Amino acid sequence: MKFSESLRGVIDLRRGRAVHAVAGQRSVYREAVVDECELGSTLDIVRRYQRLGLSSVYVADLDAILDNAPNVGLLSEIVELVPDVWIDAGGAAAGLAMQFGESQVRFVLPTECVATVDQWSQLCQVIGGGERVVLGLDLAGVQVRTSAEVNRAACVDELINAALSWIEAAVTHGVASVLALDLQHVGRMQGPGIAQTCAHLVNRWPRLQWASGGGVRDADDVRCLLDAGCTSVLVGTALHRNETAKRMRVGGSGYC
Hints:
The protein is α/β, with parallel strands linked by helices. It has helices at about 40-50, 60-65, 70-80, 95-100, 115-125, 155-170, 195-205, 220-225, 240-245, and strands spanning about 5-15, 15-20, 30, 55-60, 85-90, 105-110, 135-140, 145, 175-180, 210-215, 230-235. The protein is globular and about 45 Å long.
């Protein structure tokens, strides 16, 4: 199996430019510095991912999430270039879903963008549920994050209980994919600290398709998440520089 087939390239948008996300500290995000790309150029980064053999991307549109002002034109250009696009636009996803009609775009609906499971269900229903939606399970350690609070889970068993209502809502709407992320690990190149948590989640709900990422440095880190049961891994920072991209075993010739 080509190693690149398990990777989903990450792009974070802010004020219409690609930025480097670090640990969810959105106020300090700066334009992404990526080898062979113009500073902050989203489409340059998309083309770089394609040269590395990736055919899937995840786009977090922070303008949509924070200001309800999605980058519709830019997102449309990405969709024209890439056959498999996941978009996280927070609550603005409902409007975007109408813009993209019956395209292959899938919308990540994160727990962090709503206060309750009922609100998530309503948003999911507006978009159409099923394959159009990915449940974004936002975590802080073993706690589930929402727009209202972080639950008080203190161990993995409590996390499973806290996640249960979200998973049940997703399944009810025909959603079969879940993206589990802990923003504290994003962009820090310190390894996938969420791997063990993913293993517990996958063990509890093995029929769902799980994705994760954050902190991935090299092919071994990708393998760690795949071994935990994830079917795809989000990678951004490690693909931005030629030196670290080589450690990902990408470029069309790497196999795992």
